[in-house]
Write a structure and sequence with these properties.
alpha/beta; 5-stranded mixed sheet; two-stranded antiparallel sheet; 10 helices; 35% helix
Length: 305
């Protein structure tokens, strides 16, 4: 990338962390600037639909369940069993995000779908259906980070990174969680990000959450503190926080190593007033929630204007 752009950066490296690659790269860039090593950093995410990260065959602790959809099904069944969440509640996540994707010219899926469409789509692993699964695809996104001093001189509406939280429990699924009704890494990362930013869940106006499967967005509501545990199924249609305005992974597609960068790009565009037809009026605080490997790794970031 540096060669193609004619750049000679002080530091140039590639970072791979499955679906968490993009946000982890942005955390690295933020750290370089904060430490004074450099005053600007370009983060580029790119991947193909044949990414090796789409199947976790290296992790033998997953046994025969080495596809992410297997773990989405386990999460969904556990939530339904404990809290009475209905399949229709989970399916509404896909309906909402496909509707949002219709306003995004870069989305893989631009047509709205109905609840009936989702419920009648083919069952992949019960109860997860085809229209509740994201599609791996090719894609790229980029974000430029600048020091505060440099940004103030050249950016009309700078967007500031106020909070960062990152947690990785383990490399294998064997120790990923003790309770299937939440994703522990996301809860820890969210707590870190809110503490660093001195913000609270009620302050968030717009959020990009990791909806690789519909149930993951419902778990995110709870892990991030938007709603109390077990109530995520009733939160899908709320209007207080705009969630996944670009269509999420379900509507946009999921180029695995790119997604975290694309999520940050969307929130930065919303906060700076540059989101075009999907612009959320009056938003000042945004959140990014990015998972990897069935929740064994999570990053949460808070941005403000």
């Amino acid at each position: 990338m540096a060669e193609m752009l004619g750049l000679r950066p002080k530091i140039c490296h590639r970072l791979d962390n499955l679906c968490n690659s993009g946000t982890n790269a942005i955390v690295s860039a933020f750290s370089y600037i904060s430490s004074g090593i450099c005053d600007s950093a370009l983060v580029v995410g790119a991947d193909t639909n044949e990414s090796l990260g789409s199947k976790l065959a290296w992790d033998i602790t997953r046994g025969a369940f080495n596809l992410p959809v297997h773990w989405a099904a386990i999460f969904a069944k556990a939530h339904m069993r404990r809290y009475g969440t209905k399949e229709e509640d989970i399916a509404m996540v896909s309906v909402k995000n496909h509707e949002n994707a219709g306003k995004n010219p870069n989305a893989l899926f631009s047509e709205a779908i109905t609840l009936d469409d989702v419920m009648k789509s083919r069952v992949i692993v019960e109860p997860i259906k085809l229209l509740e699964c994201c599609s791996a695809c090719a894609g790229s996104s980029a974000v430029l980070l600048l020091s505060e001093e440099k940004a103030k001189g050249i950016v009309e509406t700078p967007v500031w990174i106020k909070g960062i939280g990152q947690q990785t429990n383990c490399a294998s699924i064997s120790k990923v969680m003790g309770d299937l009704e939440d994703i522990g890494t996301a809860k820890i990362a969210a707590r870190q990000a809110f503490h660093m930013s001195h913000l609270f869940p009620k302050d968030v106006d717009v959020a990009e959450v990791h909806d690789a499967f519909s149930i993951l967005e419902i778990l995110a509501y709870e892990d991030l503190g938007f709603v109390e545990r077990g109530r995520g199924g009733n939160f899908v249609t709320q209007k207080d926080i705009v969630i996944n305005p670009r269509g999420g992974l379900l509507g946009c597609g999921h180029p695995i190593g790119t997604t975290g960068v694309a999520q940050v790009s969307e929130i930065a565009s919303q906060l700076s007033g540059n989101a075009g037809s999907r612009q959320i009026q009056g938003c000042e605080t945004g959140l990014i929630h990015n998972l990897a490997a069935a929740g064994s790794s999570a990053t949460v970031m808070l941005l403000t204007v």
